[in-house]
Write a structure and sequence with these properties.
- The protein is of the alpha+beta class.
- It is 49% helix and 23% strand.
- The chain has 3 domains: 101 residues, Helix Hairpins, CATH 1.10.287.1260; 48 residues, SH3 type barrels; 81 residues, Alpha-Beta Plaits, CATH 3.30.70.100.
- A 5-stranded antiparallel beta sheet has the order 4-3-2-1-5. A 3-stranded antiparallel beta sheet has the order 6-8-7, covered by helices on one side. It has a two-stranded antiparallel sheet with strand order 9-10.
- β2 and β3 form a beta hairpin.
- The longest helix has 47 residues.
- The N and C termini lie far apart (103 Å).
């Protein structure tokens, strides 16, 4: 069966149309792949340039690099759509409509972005600082657009939505250069309180990690059920806080026992009354 000239012309036009679509699809895929690679390269380039800027806060570096990557990806998307003949006005309208739809669908995500911007602007914490916020503890590794990455004290990775941190009360343990240490030690009611205070104060004054101003103190905090509780109060650099706490606790126990002081522990006295009225008594240590 032979085709007439009109049919051949239609087939030729259809072939050219399909060929044009195929070329556009291939070109769009190539632009998308190249753009994706270029966006990653731009992000790394921005990070390297910011690392060379001495005054740039390291908290802002990953955020600015991510913004640069997203900007490149947006241009790549526009270029891919333009490859298929979509007009610029149509692209803008499409992005606007998509933005509204995404905004309605991802309200929580947008809250995280807004919270991340506020955290970067107000800076209640920075990268490298140890914080606690509503039961969330850890060292801040990176503040992103959506989440803040942290490492716990025992080395675990933690990803926290920015909105959760923004809506919580944040305690920053590293913002101030010094911290106050309150260490409680109990002595027996029969011990000499003044002598124990003098001994413990000597421990504080003899440790180079203890700040001289404010001056260290040994105070009677409370009269407990089985002991007189003394509190060793001193100030130290934030980096010395925990080592000093552990060392003072051990040194206080050893020094008090060496000088004859008693560090009491909770006890319970049990009395058993028999039918004839006799009593048996014994003491038991409480765990």
């Amino acid at each position: 069966m032979e085709l007439d000239a009109a049919e051949l012309e239609k087939l030729s036009g259809l072939g050219e149309l399909l060929l044009g679509y195929a070329v556009n699809i291939v070109a769009g895929i190539v632009i998308l792949l190249v753009g994706w690679i270029l966006a990653g390269w731009i992000r790394r380039l921005v990070l390297r340039l910011l690392d060379r800027t001495p005054r740039m806060d390291r908290t802002l570096k990953p955020v600015l690099a991510s913004i640069a990557r997203y900007v490149v990806l947006i241009f790549v998307l526009v270029a891919v759509l333009a490859q298929f003949g979509v007009q610029t006005a149509s692209i803008i309208a499409l992005l606007g409509a998509a933005g509204i739809a995404v905004g309605l669908a991802l309200q929580g995500t947008l809250q995280n972005i807004a919270a991340g911007m506020m955290l970067l602007f107000l800076r209640p914490f920075q990268v490298g600082e140890y914080i606690s916020a509503d039961g969330i503890d850890g060292t801040v590794e990176e503040i992103g657009l959506f989440v803040t990455q942290m490492t716990t004290f025992d080395g675990l990775y933690r990803s926290v939505p920015n909105a959760k941190l923004w809506n919580a009360t944040i305690t920053n343990y590293d913002r101030r250069p010094t911290r106050r240490l309150d260490l409680k030690i109990g002595i027996s009611y029969g011990d000499d309180i003044a002598a124990a205070q003098k001994l413990l104060l000597g421990l504080l004054q003899g440790d180079a990690r203890v700040k001289e101003d404010p001056a260290p103190q040994v105070l009677v905090e409370t009269l407990a059920d089985s002991s007189v509780v003394l509190v060793l109060r001193c100030w130290s650099a934030k980096g010395d806080f925990w080592p000093l706490c552990y060392d003072l606790r051990q040194a206080a126990k050893e020094s008090l026992e060496a000088e004859g002081f008693t560090i009491p522990f909770p006890q319970r006295e049990v009395r058993v009354v028999h039918e004839d009225g006799a009593e048996d008594g014994r003491r038991e240590a409480l765990d």
